[in-house]
């Protein structure tokens, strides 16, 4: 291959296997950390950190802290997006993963409310905010590593690998909780839907402490990456922005809004099928607000079976989005989500087989809608602000969707006297908003990520020559 005309050395290229492993490994760890908090928020945190005479109030308080992390995510998207668009993808990804790992490990060593009072709850909130802050910078960086290094015509397929971190993290996290439950069984005669005393006392800490091992592996994998050629060329051309946030808000506001609402139905479905369904599935049928009455182990095994479809159809969605387009694929999937929200109560009414079908269909749709996002959101923005723009759209949507979804779902569940039909209506309504955003947007399949900044771009926000980022 001839040398570039400038006489500079060719930009190092990441092997494709390294790209896929690094993007998958990092998001798997990040989602694992997030899931184990979500599971603990249902199983033990209400009684350990939010004591209340009303179990529903304690559960809602635990969910409120779960949602607080979603509020921190856009802040993380801005901070890590700034670093990623100024300094590069690799270093920023390492820092975000390390932040998440430290916060998760520290949750595992926190005192409980009974041991330390309100400072224990405050520390849990602080660590949860740190988790959200880190995840705000993780996803967009992983998606960029995958898509900016993807071969022609396979960008959506490559973009599904960071998305696979969600189902893989779920399986590992909940699988570990199942192992702990098996090793620490409840005493004879105890309520099988409740965790054992040993698990409540100390067993719940193990999954949080185990995160340190996974983070060490993830850091090693990511340390072997080199910067993407797309970003390297933008930096060499002086296209790095001094204030990426200002540039993306001024020049790409429409893309931010559309990207946020395109993700909305995905987020609502995601957290209804994971956090809310775990509460609903485990709540006794004779409770004040009745649920399905399954014991924890049985229902989680049913969920893990559903999540296998989540993983499979995440991969399936990539080739479909590469062939037919991201927008076309997502329009059909979003329409299916609207229908799913209206029919899941009749499905649940069919008994265990219906519940399994509900989980399989929900997680299948989750894979089909989540998979193309790894390519679509980065494709909305030019290289110089891609980390910031895709991260803000992805994480602001987490506030509108995921932060409030479990809380709203529990309230609607109570309003429906134990029937989740209003929860399904809520999902369908959010899918309508996503469908509108998709219809207003444009297809991005043929957009080139290796762009050259337009002359009309905001030159005042370019990094000055000679700066560390230029």
UniProtKB/TrEMBL annotation:
CDD domains: MFS_ShiA_like (cd17369)
Keywords, alphabetical: Cell membrane, Membrane, Transmembrane, Transmembrane helix, Transport
Subcellular location: Cell membrane
InterPro entries reported in the protein's UniProt record: MFS, MFS_dom, MFS_trans_sf, Sugar_transporter_CS
Domain Major facilitator superfamily (MFS) profile per the UniProt entry, residue ranges: 19-445
Residue ranges, compositional bias (Basic and acidic residues): 451-461
Membrane topology category: Multi-pass membrane protein
Region described as Disordered: spans on this chain: 451-470
Transmembrane regions listed in the UniProt entry: 58-81, 93-114, 120-147, 168-190, 202-221, 256-276, 296-317, 329-349, 355-380, 392-413, 419-440
UniProt-listed PANTHER family: INNER MEMBRANE METABOLITE TRANSPORT PROTEIN YHJE (PTHR43045:SF2), SHIKIMATE TRANSPORTER (PTHR43045)
Name listed for the protein in its UniProt record: MFS transporter
Organism: Streptomyces iakyrus
């Amino acid at each position: 291959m001839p040398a570039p005309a400038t006489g500079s050395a060719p930009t190092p290229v990441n092997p494709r296997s390294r790209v896929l492993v690094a993007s998958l490994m990092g998001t798997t760890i990040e989602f694992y950390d997030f899931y184990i908090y979500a599971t603990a928020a249902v199983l033990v945190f209400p009684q350990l950190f939010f004591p209340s005479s009303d179990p529903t109030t304690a559960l809602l308080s635990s969910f409120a802290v779960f949602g607080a992390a979603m509020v921190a995510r856009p802040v993380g998207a801005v901070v890590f997006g700034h670093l990623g668009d100024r300094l590069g993808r690799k270093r920023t990804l390492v820092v975000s993963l390390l932040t998440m790992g430290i916060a998760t490990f520290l949750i595992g060593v926190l005192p409980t409310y009974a041991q330390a009072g309100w400072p224990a709850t405050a520390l849990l909130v602080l660590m949860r905010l740190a988790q959200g802050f880190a995840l705000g910078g993780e996803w967009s960086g992983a998606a960029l590593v995958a898509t900016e290094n993807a071969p022609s015509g396979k960008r959506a397929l490559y973009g599904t690998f960071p998305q696979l971190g969600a189902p893989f993290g779920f399986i590992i996290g909940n699988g570990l909780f199942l192992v702990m439950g098996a090793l620490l069984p409840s005493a004879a005669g105890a309520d099988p839907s409740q965790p054992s005393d040993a698990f409540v006392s100390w067993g719940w800490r193990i999954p949080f402490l185990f995160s340190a091992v996974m983070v060490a592996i993830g850091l090693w994998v990511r340390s072997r990456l080199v910067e993407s050629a797309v970003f390297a060329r933008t930096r060499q051309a002086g296209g790095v922005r001094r204030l990426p946030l200002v540039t993306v808000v001024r020049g790409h506001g429409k893309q931010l809004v559309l990207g946020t609402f395109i993700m909305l139905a995905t987020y609502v479905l995601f957290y209804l099928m994971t956090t809310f369904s775990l509460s609903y599935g485990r709540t006794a049928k004779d409770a004040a607000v009745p649920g399905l009455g399954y014991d924890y182990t049985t229902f989680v095994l049913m969920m893990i079976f559903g999540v296998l479809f989540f993983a499979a159809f995440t991969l399936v969605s990539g080739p479909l989005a590469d062939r037919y387009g991201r927008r076309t694929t997502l329009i059909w999937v979003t329409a299916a989500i609207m229908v799913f929200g209206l029919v899941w109560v009749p499905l649940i009414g069919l008994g265990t087989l219906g519940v399994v079908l509900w989980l399989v269909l929900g997680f299948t749709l989750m894979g089909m809608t989540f998979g193309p996002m790894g390519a679509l959101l980065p494709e909305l923005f030019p290289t110089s602000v891609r980390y910031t723009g895709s991260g803000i759209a992805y994480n602001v949507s987490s506030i509108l969707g995921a932060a409030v979804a479990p809380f709203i779902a529990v309230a609607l569940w109570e309003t429906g006297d134990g029937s989740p039909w209003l929860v399904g209506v809520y999902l369908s309504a959010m899918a309508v908003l996503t469908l509108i955003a998709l219809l207003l947007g444009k297809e991005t399949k043929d957009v080139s990520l290796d762009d050259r900044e337009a002359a009309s771009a905001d030159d005042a926000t370019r990094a000055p020559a000679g700066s560390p980022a230029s």
